[in-house]
Write a structure and sequence with these properties.
With 191 residues, this protein is α+β, with helices and mostly antiparallel strands. Helix content is 31%, strand content 29%. A hairpin with a 2-residue loop joins β5 and β6 (70-75).
């Protein structure tokens, strides 16, 4: 689905994700600064995120993930996208037409966790440069939380939350890649 707002030069399209409860809406404009993502699992004020606040006003929306030039919206399991899609599109269009930033002045990016040692730097490098871009293509994100005793802790966000493919992605994708490149990594867990 592709739609445009006359006079605003605004275009967006929807992309399916591996999670049937989530749809990734790709916009023709940046929503967040490079490398910054925001995951909202409950209603937030407009000072934190005007876009998320507007989307949570749509009955049935239970998650909003903002990253780069896309927003992933997650719905309640018992609802159909055919009932929600137009309401979500309308909320996104209204936001895009406002000229506001998706992340408001009260938004605070989470501090990057973990130490500054060489192993952590290598883990972060692979996650940030290889894994996050791949996962973002499906409307999600993987955030490094920590590394201790051979175990890498990550937080899954966006369409990854509740996705039937998340366990396979974690085990065979993320853990496999990190173990291949960094012998100190024994396993990866989602927190």
């Amino acid at each position: 689905m592709s739609t445009s707002q006359p006079g605003l030069g605004f275009r967006m399209h929807a992309e399916r994700t591996p999670n049937p409860q989530s749809v990734k809406w790709v916009l023709g404009q940046e929503l967040a600064p490079p490398g910054i993502t925001a995951n909202f699992r409950e209603t937030v004020g407009v000072g934190v995120s005007p876009l998320a606040a507007a989307l949570f006003e749509v009955a049935g929306v239970v998650g909003v993930f903002v990253g780069g030039s896309f927003v992933t919206v997650t719905k309640e399991e018992d609802l159909e996208w055919t009932d929600l899609a137009q309401l979500v599109v309308d909320a996104i269009k209204a936001f895009a037409g406002s000229g506001a930033s998706a992340l408001g002045p009260d938004f605070e990016a989470e501090a990057r966790a973990g130490g500054g040692d060489e192993v952590v730097a290598r883990i972060r490098g692979i996650i940030d440069n290889e894994i996050r871009p791949a996962v973002a293509m499906d409307g999600g994100d993987v955030v490094f939380v920590g590394f201790d005793g051979g175990v890498v802790e990550v937080m899954l966000q966006g369409s990854c939350v509740g996705c039937p493919s998340a366990t396979a992605t974690l085990r065979f994708g993320i853990e496999g890649r990190l173990r291949e490149a960094i012998p100190e990594v024994e396993s990866v867990v989602s927190v």
